[in-house]
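Lab notes, practical 5.
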Amino acid sequence: MRFFFALVVLCGLTGGCMSPAKVPVTILPMPSDISTKAAAAMTEGDRLFRSKDWGGAVQSFQTAVSAQPTLAEAHYNLAVSLDRIGNKTEAKKHYLEAANLAPGNKVIWDSPPLRETGLNHNLRQKSYLDPTPGQRF
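Output from the prediction step:
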């Protein structure tokens, strides 16, 4: 009986240790060359995102995108916020737009939909940010 219990514990620990590391999901800081209106919206979006008000963050980052459409950080932050509320379709558009605007930005290019091939993503997940089945975080 002890052997069986030890085996179960060992298997549980091994499975947890072997799961892939969680990629931290953060929003990007605003760059220095930003319009006043976009800066205000980014600051507010950052505050709302950190307080887990995803819907409010979406609105603020949408304002930033409207104020400065070429701002990759605003598109990325909007995408992450949209992803948090489960709007994967709209989030993916903004992840891609951010990647197009910032081809060398590793954080943007490591975002979930850009890491995925599109064929192996679990469509039942509410968000790209949800762990895939079998991953333990």
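Observations recorded by the TA: The chain is about 60% helix and 0% strand. The chain has one domain: 2-115.
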